[in-house]
Amino acid sequence: MAKSSTKQQNQRPSGHIRIISGQWRGRKLPVKDVIGLRPTTDRIKETVFNWLSPYVRDSHCLDLFAGSGGLIFEALSRYAETGLLFEKDAGAATQLQQNIHLLKADNAQLVRGDTLQLLTKTPTQVSTQAPALGYDLIFIDPPFRQDLLEDCCAKLEANNWLSADAVIYIEREKELNQVKLPANWAILKEKQAGQVCFELYQRQQ
User: Fold this and answer.
1) Dihedral through CA 45, CA 191, CA 141, CA 49, nearest 10?
2) E strand or H helix at 18
3) What is the pLDDT of residue 174?
4) Do residues 100 and 40 make contact, with C-beta atoms less than 8 angstroms apart?
5) How far is CA 28 from CA 12, 40, 68, 69, in A?
6) Cα separation of 152 and 165, whole Å?
7) What number is the average pLDDT over the span 8-17?
């Protein structure tokens, strides 16, 4: 949800996200109020980036449903090398582009479009800045209850989006408990907060 509730804990102010650590630590970025947009809470983000601490620096990152940009901007703040953001909604995409300029994040690129359609292409067909060996760190936090997760994961594997030992973060609704993921993805971490499950996988050869 884009709007904060007074009952939510450890949340950013309404309409903003906060960068927790790194070169932009403490910066607050505006978020477009879009139906279905659920910025990852600070509490979850702290846990996730503790998990990701061995993998973020110098990585090439891909955010399939960028939304507020909270995950990808956190990674770039912690010295990821590049970030590619996909966003379908026009308003959210405009705000993301403004935040890229605000941060002077020259290593971030936004592509507006439908994620499933973009993933039918190869990385170099989508971005001239695509890394030759694939993306190292992938964030998958799709809108809930739209059956997007399995298709996204299959297309990442099928169209050479992933580096050999890529790390994949997934955020999903708790009731989605029968997810068919690629067989070569090994789970590293998993946790639940309320109605949200978040998991970390690593690609195996």
Assistant:
1) 30
2) strand 16-18
3) 82
4) no
5) 8, 14, 11, 12
6) 18
7) 53
Residues 6+ apart with CB under 8 A from 175: none
Name beta bridge partners: 138.
62, 168
Q: Is 186 exposed, middle or buried (0-12, 13-18, 19+ CB in 10 A)?
A: exposed
Q: Give the span between the Cα atoms of 51 and 18, in whole angstroms.
A: 19
Cα 38 to Cα 1: distance, rounded to the nearest angstrom = 4
Looking at residue 144, its amino acid is F
Bridge-partner residues for 173, per DSSP?
196
Q: CA of 2: how far to CAs of 16, 99, 148, 193, in Å?
A: 9, 16, 20, 17
Specify the residue for token string 């998993």. Answer: 190
Tokens (6 digits) for 85:
């953001």
> Tokens at residue 56, please?
């973020």
Tell me which amino acid residue 36 is: G
Query: Is residue 120 predicted with pLDDT exceeding 70?
Result: yes
Q: Which percentage of the chain shows pLDDT scores above 70? A: 90
